[in-house]
Specification:
Blueprint: E1 2-5, E2 11-13, E3 27-30, H1 62-65, E4 74-76, E5 81-84, H2 95-108, E6 113-117, H3 121-133, E7 136-142, H4 147-155, E8 159-163, H5 167-181, E9 184-185, H6 193-198, H7 200-209, E10 215-219, H8 224-239, E11 247-253, H9 258-265, H10 291-300, E12 304-308, H11 313-321, H12 329-345, E13 351-354
Parallel strand pairs: 5-13, 6-7, 6-9, 7-8, 10-11, 10-13, 11-12
Antiparallel strand pairs: 1-2, 1-3, 4-5
Helix pairs in contact: 2-3, 3-4, 7-8, 11-12
Organism: Anaerovibrio lipolyticus
GO molecular function: L-serine ammonia-lyase activity; pyridoxal phosphate binding; threonine deaminase activity
Cofactor: pyridoxal 5'-phosphate
């Protein structure tokens, strides 16, 4: 198994310590899974690793790492929408899907220390799984990150380093440490093993519903869920499990919408977007590192985009909460985006929305 640079095509073995190609491009994974077949799912394993025959795993280290992540329920919210309850996870966010696979890979490679930058959820998840297998961990978070997320990171034994400035600056500071000290960069955007975990979102949906809903709404910041979803859908399509791609709709904040703007202008890459404060902190990414790869998916499959005004996030969160679902603000933004989409284009016959993070992680009023 090899890494392949998404920019120049250069390949290296996955044992390399380089966080990216020498040309600056990010790694993709040279891995083609078998044709997806539900009969090959290990139904005796109650975690996302039940799909391991279709995942790029190097050995059985996952058995020491897993915390039972995945297999989150799908519930009908109303007659037109399904919610996949992905905050029913060990660290209360969907990021556990990717972190479990990434940390299993790093542990199998003998890594004993990592750093990562995060707006909170991914850092918390990586910290938890590193704690599980004894990997020393430092997480860099931008100022303004919820105290609850920081407390969770530290509870897992990791060091939380708060960086003044926005999310993109936080990433720059963390990557500078990687370059200077040579420590392993366990980043959910850079390392493609993370997407081997997030693609199981689609495997589970197909197994649970026996189909893929006609519309899928996805929050888009750095694209960790989006890329996983598109990989999973492609694999189902190639396998013949589904006949066509659903209509995927990306959701971005009005105060940070680099992909929606690029789509409107038909650009091959995004323009750098200044990041303003937003309740939807998880998708406030002005410089998404896999932007070209994400736009390739967007144009290839006619993905639609929708933005949400800031003043619609809390009302959406309240509406969801009154039906017993207490989600964090970025997750509420997805439902706000869905409502906005319905107003513009009409209500889809059926739609799947991810409840990405639990409400207890938010500290905004």
């Amino acid at each position: 198994m090899k890494y392949v640079c998404g920019k120049c095509g250069h390949s290296e073995d996955v044992t390399t310590k380089k966080m990216k190609c020498d040309c600056g491009g990010l790694w993709k994974l040279d891995y083609q899974p078998p044709r997806f077949d539900l009969s090959q799912v290990d139904k005796n394993t109650w975690s996302l690793f039940r799909y391991r025959k279709f995942m790029a795993l190097t050995d059985d280290t996952w058995e020491k790492v897993t915390l039972g992540e995945g297999m989150t329920p799908i519930i009908p919210f109303d007659e037109h929408t399904y919610f996949k309850m992905d905050y029913f996870m060990p660290t209360l966010s969907f990021k556990d899907r990717g972190a479990a696979v990434l940390v299993a890979f790093l542990k199998s490679q003998g890594v004993d220390k990592v750093v990562q930058d995060s707006s909170g959820n991914a850092g918390n998840s990586v910290a938890a799984y590193c704690g599980r297998v004894g990997i020393d961990c430092e997480i860099f978070v931008p100022e303004g990150t919820s105290d609850k997320k920081i407390n969770m990171i530290e509870a897992h034994g990791a060091k939380a380093t708060v960086v003044p400035g926005n999310r993109d600056h936080c990433a720059d500071v963390c990557r500078a440490k990687v370059e200077q000290e040579g420590v392993c960069y366990a980043n959910h955007v850079y390392n493609p093993f993370f997407y081997e975990g997030t693609k199981t979102y689609i495997y589970e949906t197909y197994e649970q519903l026996g189909k893929i809903p006609g519309h899928i709404f996805v929050p888009l910041g750095n694209g960790t869920l989006f890329i996983g979803i598109m990989k999973g859908l492609e694999e189902l399509l190639v396998s013949g499990a589904i006949e066509k791609m659903p209509q995927v709709v990306i959701v971005q904040s009005e105060v940070c919408q680099p992909f929606v703007k690029a789509m409107e202008k038909k650009l091959s890459d995004v323009e750098i977007e200044p990041v303003e404060r937003t309740l939807a902190e998880g998708i406030a990414i002005g410089v998404p590192m896999r932007s070209e790869e994400i736009l390739e998916y967007i144009y290839k499959y006619d993905v639609q985009g929708i933005t949400i005004p800031e003043d619609r996030i809390l009302p959406a969160r309240g509406k969801i909460a009154r039906q017993g679902i207490y989600c964090e603000h970025t997750t509420a933004a997805v439902y706000a985006g869905y409502e906005h989409y319905c107003e513009k284009y009409g209500k889809p016959q059926e739609a799947l929305l991810s409840m990405c993070g639990a409400g207890l992680k938010s500290d905004h009023s």
